[in-house]
Amino acid sequence: SKTSRGDAKDESKHLPIYRHKAKLVEAVKASTFLVVTGETGSGKTTQLPQYLYEAGFCKNGRIGITQPRRVAAITVAQRVSQEMQCTLGREVGYQVRFDDCTSQDTVVKYMTDGCLLREILADPGLSQYSVVILDEVHERSLNTDILLGLLKKIFSKATKSRSFPVRVVVMSATLETDKLSAFLDNCPVFTIPGRMFPVTCTFGSAVGPKDTESTAYVKEVVKMVLEVHTSEMAGDILVFLTGQTEIERACDLLFEKAESIDYRYDVQDQTVDGLLILPLYGSMPTDQQRQIFQPSPPGIRKCVVATNIAATSLTINGIIYIIDSGFVKQLNHNSRVGMDVLEVVPISKSEAQQRAGRAGRTSAGKCFRIYTEEFWQKCMPEYTIPEIQRTSLTAVVLTLKCLGVHDVIRFPYLDSPEERFILEALKQLYQFDAIDRRGRVTQLGKLMVEFPLHPGLTRALLKAASLGCEDMLLSVAAMLSVENIFIRPGHPEKQKEADKKHRALAAKCGGTNDFATLLTVFQACKSSDRPSAWCKENWIHWRALKSAFSVETQLREILLRLQQMRDFPVETFDGNKNELFRRCLCTGYFTNVARRSVGKVFCTMDGHGSMVNIHPSSSLFDQDAELNWIIFHDVLVTSRVYIRTVCPIRYEWVKDLLPKLHEVDVYELSSVARE
Ligand code: ADP
Ligand code: MG
Q1: N or C: which end of the chain has fewer CB within 10 A?
Q2: What pTM was estimated for this model as a whole?
Q3: Which ligand 1 atom minimizes the distance to the CA of 78?
Q4: Distance from the CA of 488 to the center of ligand 2, in angstroms?
Q5: pLDDT for 404-459, tens place per residue?
Q6: Is the ipTM of this complex over 0.85?
Q7: Atom of ligand 1 nearest to the CA of 79
Q8: What share of the chain is helix, strand, coil (3-state, %, to 5)?
Q9: Residues with C-beta less than 6 Å from any ligand 1 atom
Q10: Cβ 544 vs Cβ 484: under 8 Å
């Protein structure tokens, strides 16, 4: 409606950034690189692009703004289109992996950092852009860090090929502005003075130093929400939890009083005893996201249960109370297992302060930490380690190589990853045939870089395509690219019902191959007359499946384009379809092979020899079949090391591939890298 649009524009005049509008625009004009810093919520993300637009920066090209998180890119674009009074996707648009909402008219484009990285692959000079804004740089996401180095390389010298100069703005909530400025040729720093109200923090007694591997924090957080709701003055609550599963579990627990309401289907009425419960995580549907920003109705307290996304990327007004679980879910390279694993770890102290600060934007607030002071002192590090120093670099190293950055060790990193991580990435790329022994990108590597998927999965997909059976792998890749297909209600009775349905789905394709189960679900739902009803009946997330359908279409488009453009490899195979499917998987997952050790414990074959267990969510969890060799998609570490999405294989299928895990001398690859 007109009034809400007008209001949005008016509101923006009260933001701290507003008074600095003219000076900011001048600062952007004055230098190629600029660092902008200011408290979260001061208006950097939503306002600066509009100021630049008004100042005429879009005459020659677009303004691009990157975000490390997809939800942030989408919601912020929505907000800004509202403030600029245009339809989303026209002047203001967004692009995230597998979802492009831009058009010819788009001049202000919000996107994930991964998307901009892909655009550089297609157009290394970023000729479409007049301004590139890297936002949320303090989060130190892998792609943003790589972009920092690339933009420095590309734009440090005046580029003659461009008809108009580019401006690069780097925005950060706090921290390290000197370091950023020094990195970007000692560029100017613009600071937006913020205002903050005091936040009183209290420690709890529920999580102590011994509880780093327990999942009790979900229940504790719920208890705290109810306590705050019944004993504190009016004001909304923001809860920090770890991920979608934990958030849904917490919401289920909060809803237990009103059992008939299932928020996954009834978005309309989510209140229990005057408490409006709103989950917020990465793959949220947009109609639910919108509600989060709306003021709570009179007499009702809003409670947003969120991941770290609400720490700095999104600002929700009206929050007075923070409940901090003290944990975050992170993808970390785990040296015990020798691969990237998703794990729940204590947050850093600076992160905890950032979380608490969310309560003090508009008035004094309170932060309830469910952990003890001892936990704070003993378990929480001072700062969060940048992602580039703790995750696999395989995909970005391939991107860099394809961009002609041959020496990936001496690339300008803001903080260098350990050399062994780079070597590990080179080794993996060699194993997937993406680079040759001298570290040069192969024909296959050039095909692989086009897919926004994990290189192993891409390898399997390309193998399948060369054998003419890409349909199966396209669906599986799509299913593995979206979050949580299977609903886990938490409630014991409902859980039983869901388990039964899920087992029945797995049984349809033999009951021993989780990849095949994903394929079965995909096909069964796609061919159903009433797919959403089918999902509800089978305890499957309809929303996740809908995205999987769209992802599949997009992967197919990429594949078709490549098949038309380049010499695409062609191979033949005789054998049955089931074997063909699993053999294709082996091509991409031979780095994730495990062999039965004792009982139900398996041992990985990548040289680390880690002992792993099949996750209870796998259809192979309870099976005693003679499983000797298996491949798996990913690893989850809690009190034990679990592997998820598992498939039995035969040793013969990987026999010729396994030596590749050991044969290559990483120093040979790296000596070329140093050339
Ligand atoms: P910063 O980038 O400095 O952290 P933002 O530009 O993200 O600040 O936020 C500025 C203001 O805009 C905040 O008060 C925030 O609540 C508001 N805002 C941002 N997105 C939305 C939205 N989708 N709906 C309503 N308000 C929003
Ligand atoms: Mg911001």
Answers
A1: N
A2: 0.86
A3: 23
A4: 33
A5: 998 899 999 999 999 988 988 998 899 899 999 888 999 999 999 999 888 889 99
A6: yes
A7: 23
A8: 45, 20, 35
A9: 15, 38, 40-47, 75-76, 78-79, 293, 315, 317
A10: yes
